[in-house]
Sequence to fold (365 residues):
Amino acid sequence: MSATNSPRGFLAKTISYKGGIGHWSWILHRLGGLGIAAFLILHILDIFMVGVSKEAFEALLFIYHAAIIRPFIWALLFGVFYHAFNGIRIIIQDFWPHMFKYQKQMATAVWIIVLVLVIPLIGIDIMNLLTHG
Amino acid sequence: MKVTVKIQRFNPEQDSAPYWKEYSIDAEPTDRVLDGLLHIKNTIDGTLTIRSSCAHGICGSDAMRINGVNRLACKSLFKDVGTTVTVEPIAGLPVIKDLVVDMEPFMEHYRAVLPFFINDDPAPQTERLQSHEDHQRFDESTKCILCACCTTSCPSFWANEDYLGPAAIVQAHRFIFDSRDHGTAQRLEILSDPDGVWRCRTIFNCTDACPREIKVTQVIGEVKKEILYSKL
Fold:
Protein backbone atom coordinates (compact mmCIF):
# COMPACT_ATOMS: atom_id res chain seq x y z
CA MET A 1 0.00 0.00 0.00
CA SER A 2 1.18 3.50 -0.71
CA ALA A 3 2.38 5.90 1.94
CA THR A 4 -0.09 8.70 2.41
CA ASN A 5 0.44 11.56 4.82
CA SER A 6 3.93 12.98 4.11
CA PRO A 7 4.29 16.81 4.24
CA ARG A 8 4.67 16.81 0.44
CA GLY A 9 1.59 14.65 0.06
CA PHE A 10 -0.33 16.95 2.41
CA LEU A 11 0.53 19.99 0.29
CA ALA A 12 -0.42 18.15 -2.92
CA LYS A 13 -3.79 17.13 -1.45
CA THR A 14 -4.45 20.64 -0.13
CA ILE A 15 -3.74 22.33 -3.45
CA SER A 16 -5.47 19.75 -5.64
CA TYR A 17 -8.68 19.49 -3.62
CA LYS A 18 -11.35 21.67 -5.23
CA GLY A 19 -13.11 22.60 -2.03
CA GLY A 20 -15.49 25.49 -1.55
CA ILE A 21 -14.99 28.91 0.00
CA GLY A 22 -14.22 27.28 3.37
CA HIS A 23 -11.24 25.40 1.93
CA TRP A 24 -9.73 28.52 0.34
CA SER A 25 -10.50 30.63 3.42
CA TRP A 26 -8.56 28.13 5.51
CA ILE A 27 -5.56 28.21 3.11
CA LEU A 28 -5.56 32.03 3.12
CA HIS A 29 -5.92 32.09 6.90
CA ARG A 30 -2.83 29.88 7.22
CA LEU A 31 -0.84 31.94 4.71
CA GLY A 32 -1.79 35.09 6.62
CA GLY A 33 -0.61 33.45 9.83
CA LEU A 34 2.72 32.48 8.24
CA GLY A 35 3.15 36.05 6.93
CA ILE A 36 2.52 37.48 10.40
CA ALA A 37 5.01 35.04 11.94
CA ALA A 38 7.65 35.92 9.32
CA PHE A 39 7.12 39.65 9.89
CA LEU A 40 7.34 39.17 13.64
CA ILE A 41 10.77 37.52 13.27
CA LEU A 42 11.90 40.37 10.99
CA HIS A 43 10.54 42.90 13.49
CA ILE A 44 12.39 41.27 16.41
CA LEU A 45 15.54 41.28 14.27
CA ASP A 46 15.32 44.99 13.43
CA ILE A 47 14.62 45.96 17.05
CA PHE A 48 17.62 43.86 18.05
CA MET A 49 19.72 45.91 15.60
CA VAL A 50 19.05 49.04 17.70
CA GLY A 51 21.24 47.45 20.34
CA VAL A 52 23.97 46.68 17.81
CA SER A 53 24.32 50.14 16.25
CA LYS A 54 22.29 52.98 14.79
CA GLU A 55 23.81 52.27 11.35
CA ALA A 56 22.85 48.59 11.44
CA PHE A 57 19.29 49.48 12.44
CA GLU A 58 18.92 52.05 9.66
CA ALA A 59 20.47 49.69 7.12
CA LEU A 60 17.73 47.17 7.86
CA LEU A 61 15.00 49.80 7.66
CA PHE A 62 15.42 49.97 3.89
CA ILE A 63 13.37 46.76 3.80
CA TYR A 64 10.25 48.65 4.87
CA HIS A 65 10.80 51.71 2.71
CA ALA A 66 12.06 50.22 -0.57
CA ALA A 67 9.40 50.56 -3.28
CA ILE A 68 10.04 47.03 -4.49
CA ILE A 69 9.22 45.69 -1.04
CA ARG A 70 5.94 47.64 -0.65
CA PRO A 71 3.79 44.99 -2.41
CA PHE A 72 4.95 42.49 0.22
CA ILE A 73 3.94 44.97 2.94
CA TRP A 74 0.51 45.30 1.29
CA ALA A 75 0.22 41.52 1.16
CA LEU A 76 1.12 41.43 4.84
CA LEU A 77 -1.49 44.10 5.55
CA PHE A 78 -4.08 41.97 3.75
CA GLY A 79 -2.89 38.88 5.63
CA VAL A 80 -3.17 40.58 9.03
CA PHE A 81 -6.70 41.86 8.38
CA TYR A 82 -7.80 38.59 6.78
CA HIS A 83 -6.39 36.49 9.61
CA ALA A 84 -8.12 38.72 12.18
CA PHE A 85 -11.57 38.87 10.60
CA ASN A 86 -11.60 35.27 9.42
CA GLY A 87 -10.55 34.28 12.93
CA ILE A 88 -13.56 36.15 14.31
CA ARG A 89 -15.79 34.31 11.81
CA ILE A 90 -14.45 30.95 12.98
CA ILE A 91 -14.91 31.90 16.66
CA ILE A 92 -18.53 32.89 15.96
CA GLN A 93 -19.17 29.63 14.10
CA ASP A 94 -17.53 27.53 16.81
CA PHE A 95 -19.51 29.11 19.64
CA TRP A 96 -22.83 29.31 17.81
CA PRO A 97 -22.97 26.13 15.66
CA HIS A 98 -26.43 27.03 14.31
CA MET A 99 -24.72 29.94 12.48
CA PHE A 100 -23.06 27.32 10.27
CA LYS A 101 -25.86 27.69 7.73
CA TYR A 102 -24.55 31.20 7.02
CA GLN A 103 -20.98 29.98 6.44
CA LYS A 104 -20.74 31.08 2.81
CA GLN A 105 -22.29 34.48 3.50
CA MET A 106 -19.98 35.05 6.48
CA ALA A 107 -16.89 33.99 4.53
CA THR A 108 -17.90 36.39 1.73
CA ALA A 109 -18.50 39.16 4.28
CA VAL A 110 -14.95 38.68 5.60
CA TRP A 111 -13.63 39.28 2.07
CA ILE A 112 -15.74 42.43 1.66
CA ILE A 113 -14.72 43.88 5.07
CA VAL A 114 -11.04 43.16 4.46
CA LEU A 115 -11.03 44.63 0.96
CA VAL A 116 -12.92 47.76 2.14
CA LEU A 117 -10.23 48.28 4.79
CA VAL A 118 -7.14 47.27 2.81
CA ILE A 119 -7.74 48.91 -0.58
CA PRO A 120 -7.90 52.51 0.80
CA LEU A 121 -4.82 51.84 2.96
CA ILE A 122 -2.87 50.60 -0.07
CA GLY A 123 -4.14 53.65 -1.99
CA ILE A 124 -2.85 55.98 0.74
CA ASP A 125 0.50 54.18 0.72
CA ILE A 126 0.80 54.50 -3.07
CA MET A 127 -0.02 58.22 -2.80
CA ASN A 128 2.70 58.60 -0.16
CA LEU A 129 5.18 56.73 -2.36
CA LEU A 130 4.38 58.98 -5.32
CA THR A 131 4.56 62.23 -3.35
CA HIS A 132 7.41 61.49 -0.93
CA GLY A 133 9.29 58.75 -2.79
CA MET B 1 -22.52 11.63 -25.44
CA LYS B 2 -18.77 11.04 -25.52
CA VAL B 3 -17.15 11.13 -22.11
CA THR B 4 -13.45 11.11 -21.30
CA VAL B 5 -12.75 9.49 -17.96
CA LYS B 6 -9.28 10.12 -16.59
CA ILE B 7 -8.53 7.67 -13.80
CA GLN B 8 -5.63 7.64 -11.37
CA ARG B 9 -4.21 4.12 -11.53
CA PHE B 10 -1.86 2.56 -9.03
CA ASN B 11 -0.92 -1.01 -8.32
CA PRO B 12 1.58 -1.00 -5.43
CA GLU B 13 2.83 -4.43 -6.48
CA GLN B 14 3.88 -3.15 -9.93
CA ASP B 15 4.01 0.65 -9.99
CA SER B 16 6.46 2.94 -8.25
CA ALA B 17 4.00 5.86 -8.34
CA PRO B 18 0.38 6.58 -9.32
CA TYR B 19 -0.25 7.54 -12.96
CA TRP B 20 -3.19 8.77 -15.02
CA LYS B 21 -4.93 6.73 -17.71
CA GLU B 22 -7.66 8.06 -20.02
CA TYR B 23 -10.66 6.14 -21.30
CA SER B 24 -13.18 7.35 -23.85
CA ILE B 25 -16.69 5.97 -23.48
CA ASP B 26 -20.24 6.58 -24.68
CA ALA B 27 -22.64 7.50 -21.90
CA GLU B 28 -26.09 8.97 -21.36
CA PRO B 29 -26.19 12.29 -19.47
CA THR B 30 -28.20 10.52 -16.77
CA ASP B 31 -25.65 7.72 -16.40
CA ARG B 32 -23.73 7.72 -13.16
CA VAL B 33 -19.96 7.86 -12.92
CA LEU B 34 -20.19 4.41 -11.38
CA ASP B 35 -21.88 3.14 -14.58
CA GLY B 36 -18.99 4.60 -16.58
CA LEU B 37 -16.38 2.97 -14.35
CA LEU B 38 -18.12 -0.42 -14.48
CA HIS B 39 -18.37 -0.10 -18.28
CA ILE B 40 -14.62 0.56 -18.46
CA LYS B 41 -13.87 -2.38 -16.20
CA ASN B 42 -16.23 -4.78 -17.95
CA THR B 43 -15.49 -3.91 -21.59
CA ILE B 44 -12.24 -1.95 -21.91
CA ASP B 45 -9.80 -2.65 -19.07
CA GLY B 46 -10.49 -5.48 -16.65
CA THR B 47 -7.49 -4.53 -14.51
CA LEU B 48 -9.27 -1.43 -13.18
CA THR B 49 -10.14 -1.96 -9.52
CA ILE B 50 -13.08 -0.22 -7.85
CA ARG B 51 -15.23 -0.93 -4.82
CA SER B 52 -18.99 -0.79 -5.11
CA SER B 53 -21.79 -2.61 -3.38
CA CYS B 54 -25.35 -1.29 -3.25
CA ALA B 55 -24.81 1.29 -6.03
CA HIS B 56 -27.66 3.40 -4.63
CA GLY B 57 -25.99 5.79 -2.19
CA ILE B 58 -26.72 3.70 0.89
CA CYS B 59 -23.63 1.58 1.57
CA GLY B 60 -21.06 4.32 0.92
CA SER B 61 -18.51 1.91 -0.57
CA ASP B 62 -17.80 3.84 -3.80
CA ALA B 63 -16.54 7.10 -2.29
CA MET B 64 -13.89 8.66 -4.54
CA ARG B 65 -12.54 12.02 -5.59
CA ILE B 66 -14.42 13.05 -8.74
CA ASN B 67 -13.27 16.24 -10.47
CA GLY B 68 -11.28 17.15 -7.38
CA VAL B 69 -14.12 16.75 -4.88
CA ASN B 70 -15.14 13.77 -2.74
CA ARG B 71 -18.40 12.17 -3.91
CA LEU B 72 -20.09 8.80 -4.25
CA ALA B 73 -19.69 7.51 -7.82
CA CYS B 74 -23.22 6.06 -7.65
CA LYS B 75 -24.72 9.48 -6.89
CA SER B 76 -22.76 11.49 -9.48
CA LEU B 77 -24.37 11.88 -12.91
CA PHE B 78 -22.34 12.72 -16.02
CA LYS B 79 -24.70 15.62 -16.76
CA ASP B 80 -23.54 17.16 -13.45
CA VAL B 81 -19.83 16.35 -13.59
CA GLY B 82 -19.24 17.08 -17.30
CA THR B 83 -17.81 15.24 -20.26
CA THR B 84 -14.24 15.21 -18.98
CA VAL B 85 -14.10 13.55 -15.60
CA THR B 86 -11.12 12.91 -13.37
CA VAL B 87 -11.40 10.12 -10.84
CA GLU B 88 -8.97 9.50 -7.97
CA PRO B 89 -9.08 7.49 -4.75
CA ILE B 90 -10.11 9.40 -1.61
CA ALA B 91 -7.08 11.02 0.01
CA GLY B 92 -5.37 10.25 3.28
CA LEU B 93 -5.95 6.48 3.37
CA PRO B 94 -3.47 3.96 1.92
CA VAL B 95 -4.30 2.89 -1.63
CA ILE B 96 -4.70 -0.87 -2.01
CA LYS B 97 -5.17 -0.66 -5.79
CA ASP B 98 -6.51 2.02 -8.16
CA LEU B 99 -9.65 3.47 -6.54
CA VAL B 100 -9.75 1.09 -3.59
CA VAL B 101 -8.32 2.36 -0.30
CA ASP B 102 -7.68 0.57 2.97
CA MET B 103 -10.55 1.64 5.25
CA GLU B 104 -9.06 0.08 8.37
CA PRO B 105 -7.48 3.32 9.77
CA PHE B 106 -10.85 5.02 9.26
CA MET B 107 -12.71 2.18 10.99
CA GLU B 108 -10.19 2.21 13.83
CA HIS B 109 -11.14 5.83 14.55
CA TYR B 110 -14.80 4.92 14.27
CA ARG B 111 -14.42 2.18 16.89
CA ALA B 112 -12.44 4.53 19.16
CA VAL B 113 -15.49 6.71 19.92
CA LEU B 114 -17.54 3.78 21.31
CA PRO B 115 -20.18 3.84 18.56
CA PHE B 116 -22.73 1.73 20.40
CA PHE B 117 -25.49 2.22 22.93
CA ILE B 118 -24.26 2.32 26.54
CA ASN B 119 -26.83 1.97 29.30
CA ASP B 120 -26.36 -0.40 32.23
CA ASP B 121 -29.84 0.15 33.66
CA PRO B 122 -31.98 -2.99 33.74
CA ALA B 123 -33.75 -3.39 30.40
CA PRO B 124 -37.36 -2.15 30.65
CA GLN B 125 -40.35 -4.34 29.73
CA THR B 126 -41.11 -2.07 26.76
CA GLU B 127 -39.01 0.23 24.56
CA ARG B 128 -36.81 2.94 26.05
CA LEU B 129 -39.11 5.78 25.11
CA GLN B 130 -37.82 9.10 23.84
CA SER B 131 -39.62 12.33 22.97
CA HIS B 132 -39.58 13.68 19.43
CA GLU B 133 -37.62 16.71 20.67
CA ASP B 134 -34.99 14.49 22.31
CA HIS B 135 -34.62 12.48 19.10
CA GLN B 136 -34.24 15.63 16.99
CA ARG B 137 -31.17 16.45 19.09
CA PHE B 138 -29.16 13.77 17.26
CA ASP B 139 -31.32 12.94 14.23
CA GLU B 140 -28.85 14.64 11.87
CA SER B 141 -25.99 12.33 12.82
CA THR B 142 -28.02 9.11 12.37
CA LYS B 143 -27.83 9.59 8.59
CA CYS B 144 -24.09 8.81 8.36
CA ILE B 145 -23.20 5.84 6.12
CA LEU B 146 -19.46 5.77 6.94
CA CYS B 147 -18.41 6.38 3.35
CA ALA B 148 -15.38 8.45 4.52
CA CYS B 149 -16.11 11.31 2.08
CA CYS B 150 -15.96 13.78 4.98
CA THR B 151 -12.88 12.48 6.77
CA THR B 152 -10.84 12.18 3.56
CA SER B 153 -11.76 15.72 2.47
CA CYS B 154 -10.41 17.17 5.73
CA PRO B 155 -6.98 18.87 5.60
CA SER B 156 -6.55 18.23 9.34
CA PHE B 157 -6.83 14.49 8.63
CA TRP B 158 -4.43 14.75 5.67
CA ALA B 159 -1.92 16.41 8.00
CA ASN B 160 -2.38 14.02 10.91
CA GLU B 161 -3.73 10.51 10.39
CA ASP B 162 -4.24 10.16 14.16
CA TYR B 163 -7.00 12.80 14.06
CA LEU B 164 -10.28 10.97 14.66
CA GLY B 165 -11.86 12.77 11.73
CA PRO B 166 -15.35 14.12 11.03
CA ALA B 167 -17.07 10.74 10.51
CA ALA B 168 -16.01 9.37 13.90
CA ILE B 169 -17.14 12.61 15.59
CA VAL B 170 -20.51 12.41 13.82
CA GLN B 171 -20.88 8.85 15.09
CA ALA B 172 -19.99 9.97 18.60
CA HIS B 173 -22.52 12.83 18.34
CA ARG B 174 -25.25 10.28 17.53
CA PHE B 175 -24.81 8.74 21.02
CA ILE B 176 -23.63 11.77 23.04
CA PHE B 177 -26.91 13.57 22.44
CA ASP B 178 -29.10 10.46 22.79
CA SER B 179 -31.06 10.98 26.03
CA ARG B 180 -31.18 7.19 26.61
CA ASP B 181 -27.41 6.69 26.43
CA HIS B 182 -25.17 6.86 29.52
CA GLY B 183 -21.75 6.87 27.86
CA THR B 184 -21.50 10.61 27.22
CA ALA B 185 -18.73 11.30 29.76
CA GLN B 186 -16.55 8.49 28.32
CA ARG B 187 -16.99 9.72 24.75
CA LEU B 188 -16.37 13.37 25.64
CA GLU B 189 -13.15 12.30 27.35
CA ILE B 190 -12.04 10.48 24.18
CA LEU B 191 -13.01 13.40 21.95
CA SER B 192 -11.28 16.02 24.10
CA ASP B 193 -7.95 14.32 23.36
CA PRO B 194 -5.51 16.46 21.26
CA ASP B 195 -6.37 14.17 18.31
CA GLY B 196 -10.09 14.59 18.95
CA VAL B 197 -12.45 17.43 18.04
CA TRP B 198 -9.90 20.19 18.64
CA ARG B 199 -8.04 19.28 15.45
CA CYS B 200 -11.11 20.47 13.52
CA ARG B 201 -10.31 23.85 11.96
CA THR B 202 -13.89 24.62 10.87
CA ILE B 203 -12.95 24.32 7.20
CA PHE B 204 -16.34 22.97 5.99
CA ASN B 205 -14.94 20.54 3.38
CA CYS B 206 -16.66 17.73 5.29
CA THR B 207 -20.07 19.42 5.10
CA ASP B 208 -19.65 20.09 1.37
CA ALA B 209 -18.51 16.51 0.69
CA CYS B 210 -21.16 14.61 2.65
CA PRO B 211 -23.39 12.69 0.20
CA ARG B 212 -26.07 12.47 2.90
CA GLU B 213 -26.06 16.25 3.35
CA ILE B 214 -25.27 16.00 7.05
CA LYS B 215 -24.26 19.35 8.52
CA VAL B 216 -20.99 17.78 9.65
CA THR B 217 -19.24 20.98 10.75
CA GLN B 218 -22.29 21.98 12.80
CA VAL B 219 -22.36 18.54 14.43
CA ILE B 220 -18.64 18.82 15.30
CA GLY B 221 -19.30 22.34 16.64
CA GLU B 222 -22.00 20.97 18.95
CA VAL B 223 -19.58 18.36 20.30
CA LYS B 224 -16.90 21.03 20.84
CA LYS B 225 -19.38 23.13 22.81
CA GLU B 226 -20.51 20.12 24.86
CA ILE B 227 -16.89 19.38 25.83
CA LEU B 228 -16.22 23.03 26.67
CA TYR B 229 -19.34 23.50 28.79
CA SER B 230 -18.95 20.12 30.50
CA LYS B 231 -15.61 21.34 31.86
CA LEU B 232 -16.88 24.73 33.11
Observations:
- Chain B touches chain A through 35 residues (CB under 8 Å).
- Residues 216-230 of chain B form the longest helix (15 residues).
